[in-house]
Structure formats: C-alpha cells, structure tokens
User: What shape does this take?
Amino acid sequence: MKDGKYTVEDLLDIMKTLRSPGGCPWDREQDHSSIRRNMIEEAYEACEAIDLDDKELLCEELGDVLLQVVFHARIEEEAGGFRFEDVVDGVCRKLMVRHPHIFGDLKLKTGTSEEVLENWDEIKRRTKKNETAASTLDAVAKSLPALMRTEKLLARAKRAGFELPGTEALTDADEVGRELFLTVARAQKGGVDPERALGLAGDRFIQRFRRAEELCGGFEGKSEEDRLSAWEAAAENG
Assistant: This one.
C-alpha cells in the first residue's frame, strides 16, 4: 500500500498482476462471459447510490464499475485483442465526433439540448451505418431490461416521425406504477414471464415498424395519415 493516491495506471498494473502466472487463481480463471453479470450488478449498484444521493457510496460503486472495464480490457489484451488504451481512445474519438459544435465547425441554430440530441442521433446513425429508422431500433441492445428497452424503442420511433397509435398519455406516476405492478401480478398468476413477454413484444414492434417504414417509403416528411395507414397495412402483411 502506498501513502499517496493510486492512479488508473496503478489499477491496470494491479489487474495485470492478478491475472499473471502466480496471481489470483479466481481472477486468472475468468473470461468475458463469466464476469458478464458482474458488470450489470455493479452498474445497478452505482445507480442505487445515485438514487440514494450517497456521494461516498457512489465513489465506491463507480470504482467497481471501472474495475469491470479494466478487467474486460485485460482479458482481451491477453487474447491479443484490444487494450484499455484502445477503449479510452475509442470513447474520446466518439465524444469529439458527436460534439461537432464543440470540437468542430458546426454552428447550432437554436443552441438547445434538443438540437444537440438530434445532431447526436444523426451522427450516430451515419457512423453506425444505420440507413433506416428500423435499423436504429435494431441497434437498441436486447440485453437491456425489457422496460428500459421498450422506452428506447418508442423514443427512437418517435424521433423517426412515428408514434404508436391508440395510446393515451398517462401523467400520474402513481397510476403508471400501479398499472405496471398489476400487469406483472396478472402475468405471474397466468404463468407468464413479464420480462420475456415485454421483450418479445419489443421484437414484434420492430418487425412491424420495419414493414411499415418500407411500405411508407420512410416516415420522415410523411403525413400522419400515411404513417398510420402504413402501420395498419404492416399488421395485415405480417
């Protein structure tokens, strides 16, 4: 143990030691798959610290999240793949590319967060070669919790110019919570896994969205009537 502050370089060295011959047997046995769940758990614990507004706990949990990043990077480096430095390089370049109004020549028209997010989505679509709106929905990770994934799917569909028809806005958080809770309870009584059911519903939404987009020739610039007509036709063709 040293008297001063440890740095990221120290963390990388410690992980290298743990994974080296003569290091920790448990650490040496791990691979990407075996510690996959750890990444999820540590991220959730960091989120809980945020919810609790516990700064000391948050500092600790962010360290645990960073440990997972270093762990995976070390595993990959040993396999002859990317290194931690590549992870850092990639995210730095991504941030600079997606903030052209800060690191480039782009001039914002309104200077609002909404405009920044629109630019971010457009740049992300181009860099990831998402040529259609449906491909941006495909890019939403299936490994996300089903409810979170559903929110992202609907948000991306909306940004593409499509909102799910026949839905009324719910503004009471307590009411929303009760409805969700009761839906889960009813699913359990019927022997249905609500997480899996919602995930499958998300898959079906993407499939129908893709068919509707093709029938409509893209949602951008189309009237609401055209979008709804394509949505209904997609159900009939599915």
